[in-house]
Amino acid sequence: MRYIAFLRAINVGGRVVKMELLKRLFEELPLSDVETYIASGNVLFTSAARTAAPLEAKIEAHLERRLGYAVPAFLRTPAELAAAVRARPFRDVALSNKGAALYVGFVSAEPSAGVRKTFADMKCPTDEFQIRGREVFWLSRKRMLESAYSGAQLERALGMPATFRNLSSLEKLIARHV
Protein backbone atom coordinates (compact mmCIF):
# COMPACT_ATOMS: atom_id res chain seq x y z
CA MET A 1 0.00 0.00 0.00
CA ARG A 2 1.27 3.49 -0.82
CA TYR A 3 1.56 6.04 1.99
CA ILE A 4 2.74 9.58 2.49
CA ALA A 5 4.38 10.37 5.82
CA PHE A 6 4.22 13.95 7.04
CA LEU A 7 6.92 14.27 9.68
CA ARG A 8 7.10 16.89 12.40
CA ALA A 9 10.46 18.29 13.58
CA ILE A 10 12.37 17.73 10.35
CA ASN A 11 14.55 20.64 9.21
CA VAL A 12 13.18 23.11 11.76
CA GLY A 13 14.64 24.43 14.98
CA GLY A 14 18.21 23.65 13.99
CA ARG A 15 17.52 19.94 13.44
CA VAL A 16 18.78 19.39 9.92
CA VAL A 17 18.18 16.03 8.25
CA LYS A 18 19.39 15.55 4.69
CA MET A 19 16.78 13.95 2.46
CA GLU A 20 19.21 11.18 1.45
CA LEU A 21 19.50 10.19 5.13
CA LEU A 22 15.75 10.36 5.65
CA LYS A 23 15.22 8.13 2.62
CA ARG A 24 17.78 5.63 3.93
CA LEU A 25 16.13 5.60 7.39
CA PHE A 26 12.79 4.66 5.80
CA GLU A 27 14.45 1.96 3.71
CA GLU A 28 15.93 0.47 6.91
CA LEU A 29 12.43 -0.32 8.24
CA PRO A 30 12.21 -1.85 5.47
CA LEU A 31 9.87 0.19 3.31
CA SER A 32 10.09 0.30 -0.48
CA ASP A 33 9.77 2.82 -3.30
CA VAL A 34 10.86 5.55 -0.88
CA GLU A 35 10.87 9.12 -2.18
CA THR A 36 11.20 12.42 -0.34
CA TYR A 37 9.39 15.55 -1.42
CA ILE A 38 10.92 18.92 -0.55
CA ALA A 39 13.08 19.17 2.55
CA SER A 40 10.30 19.52 5.13
CA GLY A 41 9.71 15.89 6.09
CA ASN A 42 7.41 14.53 3.40
CA VAL A 43 8.16 10.90 2.53
CA LEU A 44 6.29 8.70 0.06
CA PHE A 45 6.73 4.94 0.36
CA THR A 46 5.14 1.54 -0.12
CA SER A 47 4.47 -0.89 2.73
CA ALA A 48 2.73 -4.22 3.17
CA ALA A 49 0.99 -2.71 6.23
CA ARG A 50 -2.72 -2.15 5.69
CA THR A 51 -3.23 -0.12 8.87
CA ALA A 52 -1.55 3.25 9.39
CA ALA A 53 -1.45 3.60 13.21
CA PRO A 54 0.97 0.72 13.95
CA LEU A 55 3.15 1.82 11.04
CA GLU A 56 3.19 5.41 12.35
CA ALA A 57 4.40 4.10 15.73
CA LYS A 58 7.08 1.96 14.07
CA ILE A 59 8.36 4.91 12.01
CA GLU A 60 8.35 7.24 15.03
CA ALA A 61 10.29 4.75 17.19
CA HIS A 62 12.85 4.13 14.44
CA LEU A 63 13.41 7.82 13.71
CA GLU A 64 13.75 8.68 17.41
CA ARG A 65 16.28 5.87 17.86
CA ARG A 66 18.34 6.93 14.82
CA LEU A 67 18.01 10.75 15.06
CA GLY A 68 18.00 11.10 18.84
CA TYR A 69 14.76 13.06 19.17
CA ALA A 70 11.02 12.47 18.79
CA VAL A 71 9.66 12.77 15.26
CA PRO A 72 5.87 12.42 15.15
CA ALA A 73 4.71 10.82 11.89
CA PHE A 74 1.30 11.28 10.31
CA LEU A 75 0.44 8.85 7.52
CA ARG A 76 -2.10 9.34 4.78
CA THR A 77 -2.79 7.30 1.70
CA PRO A 78 -2.71 9.19 -1.60
CA ALA A 79 -6.53 8.92 -1.73
CA GLU A 80 -6.87 10.36 1.79
CA LEU A 81 -4.57 13.26 0.95
CA ALA A 82 -6.37 13.99 -2.32
CA ALA A 83 -9.73 13.94 -0.51
CA ALA A 84 -8.46 16.37 2.13
CA VAL A 85 -7.17 18.76 -0.52
CA ARG A 86 -10.43 18.52 -2.52
CA ALA A 87 -12.50 19.16 0.63
CA ARG A 88 -10.63 22.34 1.43
CA PRO A 89 -12.66 25.04 3.15
CA PHE A 90 -12.36 28.82 2.63
CA ARG A 91 -12.65 28.57 -1.15
CA ASP A 92 -13.92 32.16 -1.28
CA VAL A 93 -10.62 33.59 0.02
CA ALA A 94 -7.98 34.65 -2.53
CA LEU A 95 -4.92 32.87 -1.16
CA SER A 96 -2.39 34.92 -3.11
CA ASN A 97 -3.75 38.12 -1.55
CA LYS A 98 -1.04 39.78 0.63
CA GLY A 99 0.47 36.53 1.84
CA ALA A 100 -2.79 34.75 2.61
CA ALA A 101 -2.34 31.00 2.76
CA LEU A 102 -4.19 27.87 3.73
CA TYR A 103 -2.30 25.33 5.80
CA VAL A 104 -3.36 21.75 6.39
CA GLY A 105 -2.45 20.31 9.77
CA PHE A 106 -2.15 16.56 10.14
CA VAL A 107 -2.96 14.80 13.42
CA SER A 108 -3.15 11.12 14.32
CA ALA A 109 -6.68 11.10 15.74
CA GLU A 110 -9.81 13.11 15.07
CA PRO A 111 -9.99 16.01 17.57
CA SER A 112 -12.80 16.01 20.12
CA ALA A 113 -15.89 18.23 20.03
CA GLY A 114 -14.30 20.36 22.77
CA VAL A 115 -11.21 20.94 20.66
CA ARG A 116 -13.38 21.81 17.67
CA LYS A 117 -15.16 24.43 19.79
CA THR A 118 -11.84 25.84 20.99
CA PHE A 119 -10.69 26.24 17.39
CA ALA A 120 -13.98 27.87 16.36
CA ASP A 121 -13.51 30.34 19.24
CA MET A 122 -9.96 31.15 18.08
CA LYS A 123 -11.24 32.86 14.93
CA CYS A 124 -9.84 36.38 14.58
CA PRO A 125 -9.34 38.91 11.75
CA THR A 126 -6.15 37.19 10.53
CA ASP A 127 -6.89 33.53 11.25
CA GLU A 128 -9.71 31.05 10.92
CA PHE A 129 -9.87 27.28 11.37
CA GLN A 130 -11.90 24.25 10.38
CA ILE A 131 -11.35 20.70 11.51
CA ARG A 132 -12.40 17.89 9.20
CA GLY A 133 -11.54 14.40 10.37
CA ARG A 134 -7.81 14.18 11.07
CA GLU A 135 -7.00 17.43 9.26
CA VAL A 136 -6.96 20.94 10.68
CA PHE A 137 -7.38 23.67 8.08
CA TRP A 138 -5.78 26.98 9.07
CA LEU A 139 -6.53 30.04 6.97
CA SER A 140 -3.99 32.78 7.59
CA ARG A 141 -5.04 35.97 5.85
CA LYS A 142 -1.53 37.42 6.25
CA ARG A 143 1.97 36.01 6.19
CA MET A 144 2.49 33.31 8.81
CA LEU A 145 4.82 35.58 10.80
CA GLU A 146 1.97 38.09 11.10
CA SER A 147 -0.53 35.47 12.25
CA ALA A 148 -2.02 35.61 15.73
CA TYR A 149 -1.03 31.94 16.15
CA SER A 150 1.95 29.66 15.77
CA GLY A 151 2.10 25.94 15.08
CA ALA A 152 3.14 25.38 18.71
CA GLN A 153 0.07 27.25 19.98
CA LEU A 154 -2.16 25.21 17.70
CA GLU A 155 -0.62 21.97 18.96
CA ARG A 156 -1.32 23.03 22.54
CA ALA A 157 -4.93 23.82 21.62
CA LEU A 158 -5.23 20.42 19.91
CA GLY A 159 -3.70 18.63 22.88
CA MET A 160 -1.69 16.43 20.52
CA PRO A 161 1.21 16.68 18.08
CA ALA A 162 0.51 18.08 14.63
CA THR A 163 2.43 19.17 11.57
CA PHE A 164 1.29 21.77 9.06
CA ARG A 165 1.84 22.03 5.31
CA ASN A 166 0.90 24.77 2.87
CA LEU A 167 -2.01 23.75 0.62
CA SER A 168 -0.09 24.72 -2.52
CA SER A 169 2.75 22.32 -1.56
CA LEU A 170 0.22 19.53 -1.04
CA GLU A 171 -1.38 20.22 -4.42
CA LYS A 172 2.06 20.01 -6.07
CA LEU A 173 2.81 16.79 -4.18
CA ILE A 174 -0.40 15.23 -5.45
CA ALA A 175 0.20 16.40 -9.02
CA ARG A 176 3.77 15.12 -9.15
CA HIS A 177 3.73 11.98 -7.03
CA VAL A 178 0.24 10.68 -6.44
Largest sheet, order of strands side by side?
A: 2-3-1-4
The CATH class of the largest domain is Alpha Beta
Give the number of domains.
2
Residues in helices, as a percent range: 25-40%
Provide the structure class: alpha+beta
What spatial form do the alpha-carbon principal axes imply? Answer: globular
Could you name the CATH topology of the largest domain?
A: Alpha-Beta Plaits
Model description:
A four-stranded antiparallel beta sheet has the order 2-3-1-4. Strands 6-7-5-8 form a four-stranded antiparallel beta sheet. It has helices spanning 19-27, 52-67, 78-86, 113-121, 151-158, 167-177; strands at residues 2-7, 32-37, 42-46, 73-76, 101-106, 127-132, 135-140, 163-166. A hairpin with a 4-residue loop joins strand 2 and strand 3. The protein has two domains: 2-76, SP0830-like domains (Alpha-Beta Plaits); 86-177, 2-Layer Sandwich (Alpha-Beta Plaits), CATH 3.30.70. Helices cover 35% and strands 24% of the residues. The chain has six helices and eight strands; from the N terminus they run E-H-E-E-H-E-H-E-H-E-E-H-E-H. It is α+β, with helices and mostly antiparallel strands and 178 residues long. It is globular. The two termini are 12 Å apart. The longest helix has 16 residues, at 52-67.
